Task: structure prediction
Amino acid sequence: MNILPLLFLLVIVFPSIVKPISKAADDHDCPVQRCGHDGPDIKFPFRLQHYPRHCGHPEFEVSCSSFSNKTMMKLSSSSGFFLIQTIDYERQQFRVYDEDDCLPRRLPNFTLSFSLFKPANVIKDCCSIYNYEQNLMYMTLLNCTQAQDLMHSFPISCLSVPGHYQILAVNGDFTLNELPVGSECYTLSEFFLPVQKTLEDPCGCELDNRLFLEWNPSDFPECQNCSGRCYINYSSNQVLKCYPPIPSPRSIPSLIPSPIQKHKGLSTRFIVMGVSVCGFVVLSTTAVAIFYHLKQSIKRKEEKENQRKIEKFLDDHKSHVPTRYSYADIKKMTNGFKKKLGEGGFGSVFSGKLPTNGVPVAIKVLKDSEGNGDDFVNEVGTIGRIHHVNVVRLLGFSAEGGKRALIYELMPNSSLGKFITSRGSNKSSSSFNWEKLCNIITGIAKGIEYLHQGCDQRILHFDIKPHNILLDHAFNPKISDFGMAKLCSKEDSVISMTAARGTTGYIAPEVFNGNFGTVSYKSDVYSFGMLVLEVIGAMKETAVTSSDNEVYFPELIYECLIQGEELDLELADDGDAQIAKRLAIVALWCIQWYPVSRPSMKAVVRMLEGPSESLIMPPNPFASTTQMEQTTTPSS
Result:
């Protein structure tokens, strides 16, 4: 069946049917302008104050600051001026921000009409954030006379007064009675706040000082009576045009040649649908193929660049790196990756043997093209030069294209993390007693001390946690996984960080918030303290509860020690009790909120190996910042 006459007819008829209903204004009296060299283009629907009314809409009126030439706009008659950061005419979105970096101070003073522009995305909670664009969430502001650390909340620093009161933004779904706060907090106001994702927590959010809005031409008054579609010609800065709907094939049956009509089994509608579907399939397949080709091309280019960077590093550090193997060697060592020991976000770990002497090894095979090679370089560059009884040995590596692998000495007793997680299901296990645990923790402390002081350069691990502590055949601890490690001079007291690194629950406060102090080797001390407390928690006799809510275990440990109460732990004799108390005191020193209050790892080792009578109780790590006592840390 020949459908060319039909298509030809549509090409001729369609332009004559589709005619704009409203006339465009003259382009010459509505030129595209900018307030400053770096400012956004100002064109329809935005309009400068002194331009003719047809150049834009009243609610999109902007002006230029006389002092800084910045683009300003009122969101309502009572809002005052907001600065416009960007305007995206293609996506019909724009961003405004407060010059004083304190949107919460201004938002309660007016109500957005949302008649022609509206928030790009309104969410219910922080877990609903699926990208890093602006999101608006209904929040309750609390004024607290003491610092609070609540879930589903974040502080508003520009409204808070350190030492006097803290302003918290809490998810509006929670009432004051449902929050774990006392009389020290009261409600200030409730309104929508712009929020964005935090880097360290997939369900965490923080204040965004930008307000992200969008507009839809169909909401403009000129488009209310348009039965088709409304458009703005941004390229020529013209006003809205309304185009009628495209006529369906049913509306032009008489124009179809009679030979087609004679085929009663096939209607015109099915012919047009068939052509449309075929065209769509062809175009979609072509687009997907092109996109896939471009993506693979970019991926190959990035991988070549990453491999070039890795090869340059290996060439520059030939004398420090261990033996290099081919990927074919790795397959032979693992017998074709036959026995898997574990799996994680980095890739998989397989059991293998060295080809030269048959020594058992653990081979970590990284995911293809995982990351940009920084973690691999970190691991080889740091652990490759370390030789210490409490640090795992890197025996070799492989790097071919996007395939990378690391070869370690095999640890037959897995990790300390596995012991902690298995205690709940196997309370009768006697593999660990308090003396052995103390030896393991002391060994970890010595390993970290070596990283901080025993090498030519100080090595900060930044991911000390039970799962990164491996145990050999005699249960001696070995620190592993140096993918997040950072090398620095021993004279450097401050470490620059572009982003938070580590595992939630073990990250020191200063790593993700500079208000608590500077990042340094004391950040590893905090992580070590949390590790020790988790090990102690694994030795609990029973679940510790208060009313219906579980008590924060480290805080309970502190309260018990202060009040001289017995810890609810599995203790065989008085010697175990002394060991448990010593470990708890050392851990509480290590997790002091401010880095300056924490001891060095050298002092930690001395506390662990010294007599219990010489230990003194640390200040309360869980008190509010206004109540923190000024104390001297144990001597370094």
Summary: The first strand starts at residue 47 and ends at 48. The radius of gyration is 33 Å.
